[in-house]
Amino acid sequence: MPVVLAPLAGGPSTPELAAAVSNAGGLGFVAAGYLTAEDLGARLATARRLTDGPLGVNVFAPGRGPADRSAYAAYVERLGRWAEQAGVEIGEPRYGDDGWDAKLDLLAEQPPEVASFTFGCPDARVVDRVHAAGAEVWVTVTSADEARQAERAGADTLVVQGGEAGGHRASFDDRPDLPAVGLLSLLSLVRATTPLPLVASGGIATGAALAAVLTAGARAAQIGTAFMLAPEAGTTPAHRAALATSEPTALTRAFTGRLARGIRNRFMAEHDAHAPVAYPELHYVTAPLRRQAREQGNADLINLWAGETHELAREAPAADIVRRLADDAESALRAARARRTTPLDPAACRALVADWYEAWNAHDLDRVLSHYADDVVFSSPFIASLGSDATGTIVGKAALRAYWTRALERFPDLHFEPIAELYGVGAVTLHYRGVEGMLAAEVLELDRRALVVRAAAHYEGLASPTAEL
Ligand SMILES: Cc1cc2nc3c(=O)[nH]c(=O)nc-3n(C[C@H](O)[C@H](O)[C@H](O)COP(=O)(O)O)c2cc1C
Predict the structure, then answer these.
(1) Which of 168, 204, 322 to mutate to test the pocket of ligand 1 (most atoms within 8 A of CB)?
(2) What confidence tens digit (pLDDT) does each residue in 313-338 have?
(3) CATH code of the domain covering residue 83
């Protein structure tokens, strides 16, 4: 299923949530942020006990080093005065790398299926080490430039985080002037930059939105806020209550000194305009007051991280959320296709049918393939047995050419005897005798250019996609 549970550091992430998503056929992430390596190891072990499915671990990449004290001193003073008046406690600014080395050691010793990195790109040595341990490396990017850097470092997959996303922006280098590009725009920009697989993240709370990012070139979506009301999530009651409202979100550095999206509240309104770039120093300054506010259920002072679509989050078991997203995405894709189906030009359609038979019987694959769109999806019960793809489905003309080349080598006498042509809306079904005289029907869905965009072959007496010839 094309659903990845976003790592949700700071409370919502639990081993139970990660395992439930993986058990439902998605990919669950254990968030390493703010944990010691020891606690992370324990959580990963718990998640492993709860699922046989794949798991990801997400680690914060360290920043450039301590911020200059002069950059944040005035803000800390301001918070100090405010905290005294409000009767709340704040902490001391300090720098830290969130246990980077120890967490890398853990990834090497207990490798998850996927190790993902946010807030920066690990260097090629780190990527090699994670690969050597047997894990894939995913890097979250917020621009085409970061995508190029991650590709150069050896990342296997890029998580493309749009400006809609809840929680911290993943930018390699938080700067005041960085744009927060929306997800569809960013996906298009990154898709044009790199051939790496992409996972889209930010504001995806419905199957239709999942379908939209799949259409825009993503393999899957990394979804956070939509899972935060699941019973398996560790989201606090005050945060749950805020998610269920339609209060808008905003980007702010007020809580941590790093840009993050959360539901607007009093703390954000009072301090946002004064907050500088200083992460993690300011994270440590506000940590005690946020902890106290969480304990007291005071949503005015909590960092209510949430994506722009938080009011669409539903309270349901994580497995139900995964299944619903995947099912609704399928329906949305079908509906979108149906909306753009145009009646076929009958002459073009008949010409296609005539040429298709002639080209096949001449074994002229170039001519056959001239009738297919580049991104055609083709399924046949023979695909798996001829070793092309275990799913029985092939995507793209190049893969289709390779498959048919093998098929023609295997059946040098292949000849099609037409029986009937059945015309439908945007589709034609060809009924013929094919391979070894077997009865066959092939449904060809055509686009407005009369190019085949989807084809499904059916054979007499074969039921499974792994049928042996
Ligand atoms: C509460 C919360 C915590 C998050 N923690 C992390 C994290 O630890 N690591 C990370 O890479 N992304 C983190 N994110 C960002 C997510 O990976 C993802 O980009 C975001 O949730 C997508 O937007 P959505 O919440 O609208 O689905 C967090 C997001 C939220 C809401």
Answers:
(1) 168
(2) 999 999 999 999 999 999 999 898 77
(3) 3.20.20.70
